[in-house]
Amino acid sequence: MAPQRRHTAIAAAVVGVLGAGIVTAMVLAGAPEPERAPPLPDVRPVSVSSAAQGSGAQGSASATPTSLVVSVVGTVAEPGLITVEPGARVADAIELAGGASRDSDLHTVNLARKVSDGEQIYVGVTPPPGVSEAATGGDGPAPSTSDASKVDLNAADHAMLQTLPGVGEVTASRILEWRETHGRFTSVEQLREIDGIGEKRFARLREQVSVG
């Protein structure tokens, strides 16, 4: 091949390669870019605020009180406010107040009654006017009954006398001894002559007994 033809062929090859490259670049430049997925939003874990948690805990706690506060006054060692658990009895409150004194008349106090929050328990003292003993730890005055349902002091035996409020085995025996010594009861007020029946106990007995 002549030198001139060789140069011509090489030049044509170079032009062809350059042309192909230009066409390829133009094709690539004109092609649309592939779509990209939009970025995902930040996802944060949802947590209950401390205030909400506190209110929830407070709601559950208020449904079931954990303690009761009562006031114990009267003839106890340490009168004042006493904190007890729900379901506590009057006896529990008195014990936490140091216990009742030896001369306290606990026959007028219902020791087995469950206490309620905010109440006042009177031990060995008379509640102020307008405050019932039943609402403050006592049994309260016995309700009035008809003569037919009252216990006859002159006919009742030892067991029948013990059904009276505040009358136990010892007091019932003393009533029988008084009857044997003095004969028949002529008035209910004669119960005051029996040892162990004071003013408060007599006030609860007088509407429950008769003299036949």
UniProtKB/TrEMBL annotation:
Record-annotated Helix-hairpin-helix DNA-binding motif class domain positions: 159-178, 189-208
A GO cellular component entry from the record: type II protein secretion system complex
Any Pfam family: HHH_3
BP-aspect Gene Ontology terms: DNA repair; protein secretion by the type II secretion system
Residue ranges crossing the lipid bilayer per the database entry: none
SUPFAM superfamilies recorded: RuvA domain 2-like
Region (Disordered): 35-64
Protein's name according to its UniProt entry: DNA uptake protein
